[in-house]
């Protein structure tokens, strides 16, 4: 069901009614509440019983929010409320329809970038888009909220350029860096990145679609098991990954990050300058068979931090899946010596 403005107002109103355990909302009450909300927001009160029934059906569906709604008999009448007091659609992930609307909104307002008196749009857009810089600022805010003024970082894969941004922004807070296949060098990018670089230069919808196979179950299993000793990787990690990427809109979010990874490569020289300037204690532990971030990326740390410690383990990208014990020992020994 497409979500027009009036529909969104009704959904929010129904959600508020279903969450109110102090009152009983019968169907007539729900219709009246929706009508009043429409008057308040749009000046019109056009809402029918059929419309509210259809709204409830949508909210209960997987296309909506799968709301846990109870219909409680009170004599010949029925009132509606959530099964759980703390449930609300506002705590649920965005639906595919909402994500589509959000993307359309971003595309529309992006056309006004750079125009006079529209500087505020950049903050709005960056908060809506899936971009590494925004993710880094979220984590930065989190560290400040919980009072982390000094910390050692363990970085991996997509998390690495987020962590390197934090280090670059707040070098005084970083006591050590452990990088497990967390790249910051051009020579550390494997052959798979050639197709992505072509996409970065010409980000068409056709090229974007070529990454759809990255979210197939067999591909995700391959990412976990390639280059690892046979039988050493359990199904937990890749099964969970596959479950989450199958949720509405998740694949498109990942596609956004594939495109924005170019922002990380553009920052590689600045990340490297941070290392040269501040010389943080650095341990690189690398799955030597990783096709994404190859061993050259680990060895390159020595160029900027001569005292960096480099270790390779005989597995692939998700090194902890099969060699967590060995890597944990390396980390404990490293931190005991440098902190």
Observed structural traits:
15 helices, alpha/beta, three-stranded antiparallel β-sheet, elongated, 339 residues
List strands and helices in order, with pairings.
Layout: H1 5-19, E1 25-26, H2 27-42, H3 49-60, E2 69-74, E3 77-82, H4 96-110, H5 120-128, H6 132-145, E4 151-156, H7 159-169, E5 174-180, H8 193-201, H9 205-209, H10 217-225, H11 236-245, H12 250-278, E6 282-287, H13 295-299, H14 301-304, E7 309-313, H15 320-338
Parallel strand pairs: 4-5, 5-6, 6-7
Antiparallel strand pairs: 1-3, 2-3
Please describe what this structure looks like.
With about 350 residues, the protein is an alpha/beta fold. Helix content is about 55%, strand content about 10%. α7 links the parallel β4 (about 150-155) and β5 (about 175-180). α4 runs antiparallel to α5 (about 120-130). The longest helix is centred in the last third of the chain and has 29 residues, at about 250-280. The radius of gyration is 25 Å and the shape is elongated.
